[in-house]
Amino acid sequence: MRSGRTAAATAAITAWVGGIVLTSFLATPALAAEDQGGKIKTLLLVGGEIHDWKRIGDVVESAMKKTGKFDVTRVDNDLNAFLADRVAPYDLVVFYWTLGKLTDAQKKGILDHIAKGKGFVTFHSGADSFRGDKDWHKFVGGHFITHPRYRTFHVSVTDVKHPITQGIEEFMITDEQYILDYDKENVTVLANALYKGKLMPALWTKSHGKGRVFYTGMGHDPKATKQPMFLKIFLRACQWAVGREVKD
Q: What secondary structure letter does DSSP report for 209?
């Protein structure tokens, strides 16, 4: 009789606990797509002057899609993609642009969007966009000053434990090195390269409100962006920017 009562009590407790778990599960909001491992909704915006943005856009768009991790919407040469209603659907914004000028609405749209907890990845001329715009310089973390000739140079990683640079100590890259005026107090430099005997950041991260920003000076032309190390770092940065576990 006692064993029968014990079995009945155990069954009742099991049912009670199961009911709590089920109720809690049903009451919990659905996880965001990125938390479930779904594709990262990405806006790829390329354009501007000087650089070969069309073919550079082709390279990074293809690389992102090939991973199967990104749902990419590409926009060419249209800064209205930064307007609040147009940028709203995206968790990640990848940006390549030279010169140009933002309207107040475009600037507010993108800066407010990233500040809500979204990711922003830009490279090379992303620090030479909208010259003289201090808000943009602060957002990206710095701005372009000059560059030496296109050449092969050495990049030394300062943080080999960061998800973007984990396991990478140093590498050679053939590219146009950007010399930058940058916000030393608010960026985290992940790698440096020498210029006239002085260290110059090659990669950095920073926060913007609740969002994450990544910048690298690499990526001058299609040839540079096709290099395996550029793509490795770029794709890692795209995952890191939206808080994903970084996987190659």
A: T
CATH fold for the domain made of 40-241: Rossmann fold (3.40.50)
Residue 3 CB contacts under 8 Å (≥ 6 apart), including other chains: none
pLDDT tens track for 17-36: 344 333 333 333 233 444 54
pLDDT of residue 32: 43
State whether the Cα torsion 158-162-163-169 is positive or negative. positive
pTM of the shown model:
0.85
Sign of the Cα torsion 108, 122, 55, 51 reads positive
Domain ranges (residues) in the chain? 40-241
Question: In sequence order, which residues have a C-beta less than 8 Å from that of residue 53 and are 6 or more positions away?
Answer: 46, 47, 76, 77, 96, 97, 98
Nearest to 55 by CA among 83, 74, 31: 74
Q: Which residues pair with 64 in a beta bridge?
A: none
Q: From 59, 73, 71, 74, select the one nearest 124 (Cα to Cα).
A: 59
Answer whether residue 213 shows pLDDT above 60.
yes
Residue type, 109: G
Smallest Cα–Cα separation from 215: which of 243, 180, 176?
A: 180
One-letter amino acid of 69: K
Burial grade of 80 (CB within 10 A; 0-12, 13-18, 19 or more): middle
8 A C-beta contact, residue 201 and residue 189: yes
